[in-house]
Task: inverse folding
């Protein structure tokens, strides 16, 4: 998964010179949103004046609220999110994309935001077991390489959803599954379908009632 900005690949010395120019606090705060690399460099240079960056950290809940409202108005395809306890803890659901090994499967996720969001990526884990090279056995995902603070939770959910159809076997989290994907594709496909049928069902335990969403997607029959 490509980084958000090609600038993050520039030599450290060059970026260092750019950020030593006189900049006001608003400009600095905007620059920290580009990617983690930029933010780390800015903090190194302006460490003694870190208060300049406080406006960007002041209230992460405002940004999370805006993202939640946008997610409800324009959710990614086949996905839905709801609050579990508060703004910093969401539950999400995905329906496996058609024409993929995971078609029709119901996949539940936990999304947790830290107080440093968006400078740290959200922690997203699958509650549903998934046979996939980019998903750990404990459901974890590695988002650091694909995340930058300019992204939104909707963006990253779309990235995750796309992995159902296009696994990134060259940058795996589960190396054994990635090896099977590369060397025994038929076996991989059979197992992915079998796990989807066994674990990705509409009757999974969840803190959120997803029945209406599942009926809308014709996974559950409407209740009389």
Result:
């Amino acid at each position: 998964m490509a980084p958000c900005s090609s600038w993050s690949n520039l030599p450290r010395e060059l970026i260092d010179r750019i950020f030593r120019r006189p900049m006001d606090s608003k400009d600095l705060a905007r620059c920290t949103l580009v990617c983690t690399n930029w933010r780390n460099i800015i903090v190194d240079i302006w460490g003694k004046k870190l208060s300049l960056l406080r406006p960007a950290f002041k209230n992460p809940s405002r940004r999370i609220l805006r993202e939640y409202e946008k997610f409800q108005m324009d959710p990614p395809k086949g996905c839905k999110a709801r609050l579990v306890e508060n703004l910093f803890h969401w539950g999400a659901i995905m329906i496996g994309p058609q024409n993929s090994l995971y078609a029709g499967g119901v996949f539940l996720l936990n999304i947790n935001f830290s107080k440093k969001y968006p400078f740290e990526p959200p922690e997203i884990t699958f509650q549903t077991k998934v046979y996939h090279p980019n998903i750990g056995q404990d459901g974890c995902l590695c988002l650091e390489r694909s995340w930058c603070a300019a992204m939104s939770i909707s963006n990253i959910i779309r990235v995750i959803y796309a992995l159902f159809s296009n696994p990134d076997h060259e940058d795996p989290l589960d190396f054994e599954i990635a090896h099977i994907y590369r060397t025994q594709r038929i076996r991989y496909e059979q197992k992915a379908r079998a796990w989807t049928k066994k674990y990705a069902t509409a009757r999974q335990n969840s803190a959120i009632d997803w029945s209406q969403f599942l009926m809308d997607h014709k996974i559950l029959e409407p209740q009389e």
